[in-house]
Amino acid sequence: MGNSSGKHSGSKHSGKNSAFARVVAVVGGATLRWRRLQGVPQVQAVGTAPEIPQARPQGKLPTLKMPTARGWAPGQTPLAAPGLKVNAFATDFKHPRWICVLPNGDVTVAEAMQEGSGKPRTLFEHAMVSTMQRAAAIGKSPNRISLLRDADGDGVAELRHTFAEGLNQPFGMALAGDTFYVGNTDGILAFGYTPGATRLSGPGKRLCSFKPSGHWTRSLLLSPDGSKLYAGVGSLTNIAEGGMAVEAGRACIVELDLASGASRPYATGLRNPVGTAWEPGSGRLWTVVNERDGLGDETPPDYLTSVADGGFYGWPYCYWGKTVDERVAQDPALVARALTPDYALGGHTASLGLCWLPAGTLPGYGAGMVIGQHGSWNRSTLSGYRVVHVPFADGRPAGPPRDILSGFLSADEQESFGRPVGVALTADGALLVADDVGDVVWRVTGA
Fold it and tell me: Distance between CA 146 and CA 106 in Å, rounded?
């Protein structure tokens, strides 16, 4: 599952590496116990008016807590909410992250993962890399897109093809007419597409470029009229520790005009905007954003928000409106402009996947947004690790989130069977969920 702890067994350095790993574990465990003694928030920061605890900067030793990746046993599945059922639509992937459903019913799945960015320099960086490896969250990216086809309509894909390979951490995908778009970490590529094709040909045409590394995912969403693409581009760092020059063109949603090729920042100050979706009644663009680390278990919360053209959402200077992050050199003019997000999703839930769910699609669930919560790695008690539904009314969130899928963790939270990421709807109303630890795409329907 990506745990590389055995790669160097038998080498002359294995004893040194093992000893260092033990030191890292001891320091991490002590830090975690100390944070718990300071008090753990009893109320999750969720909703339109969340209770956000006062910031407690954690300095050079932020909390690290992440379950070991285990995967699913044969026949084991996530827990579907009452009235729903879940089955494996396809298995045996390598880190499936994102899903795109094509008009003919074919499903494309981007397989990619975070890669190491050089030798860790500090104790915390060593601890973080070790934790990510144990959780199967970092390694060699497969860099491919698979195509699935359920030709007999039984809810299980029996045909699989390598749709594209040799990509660079592919993530977002979109189809407009005869062009298939791929969001690589370093830019958007366009490929010619023929309906029913099982493989893309050629290297693709580069439409725009992004800076790689850091928050590497590049989600893609077509405008309703098919004339523009919107790409989520995350920051390089947590709170611009390397200065704002290296963050240029990042922490934003980029709008690409497909006719002219011109691109521009559509909204900024979004630390890591991942999933994007349209709310059909109002026509507004919405996104889920992963907020900053190192201020506490619930501070600040990740969030779901509508996205205003030209809007600024605070990063790195402030969060949840105009709450200043004292760790960051300030820009008062930008703080004064900062917009408050619409809906808090809880601290460090790693809310990544997003799609609109029309009323009547899943029994018992009204219109709203479905969110794949990948799960926390940096708080004293785990959060996320589930797929939730946020109900909407009159174009806005209107109630607490409800589980669609849970059960991704062992009872003691020491192991993860899976971690949900991308979500998408099929033409027949099934919800597909990419699971990058279980290496499965799940299919959720009415029971």
Answer: 10
Residue with tokens 């190192």: 294
Q: What is the DSSP string of 226-260?
A: SSEEEEEE--SSSS-TT-SGGGTT-SEEEEEETTT
- The Cβ of residue 379 has, within 10 Å, a number of other Cβ atoms equal to 26
- pLDDT tens-digit readout, 409-419: 999 999 999 99
Burial environment of residue 325 by CB neighbours within 10 A (0 to 12, 13 to 18, 19 or more): buried
Let me know how long the chain is: 447
Beta bridge partners of 181: 174, 190
Give the bridge partners for 205, in sequence order.
Answer: 190
Closest CA to 357 of 379, 385, 387, 389: 389
Alpha-carbon gap, residue 194 to 205, rounded angstroms: 16
Measured CA to CA, the distance from residue 307 to residue 309 in angstroms comes to 7
Model pLDDT for residues 181-231, shown as the tens digit of each residue: 999 999 999 999 999 999 998 889 999 999 999 999 999 999 999 999 999
More confident residue, 179 or 34: 179
DSSP state of 281: T
Point out which residues pair with 442 in neighbouring strands. 88, 433
| pLDDT mean across residues, the chain | 91
Q: In Å, what is the CA distance from 194 to each residue of 152, 201, 205, 225, 355? A: 21, 11, 16, 20, 25
d(Cα 408, Cα 415) in Å, to the nearest integer? 9
317: left (phi > 0), else alpha (psi -120 to 50), else beta? alpha
Residues in contact with 7: Cβ distance below 8 Å, sequence separation at least 6, in sequence order = none
The span from the CA of 389 to the CA of 364, in Å, is: 11
| Inter-residue contact 374 to 350 (CB < 8 Å) | yes
* Residue 294 to residue 307: CA distance in whole angstroms: 25
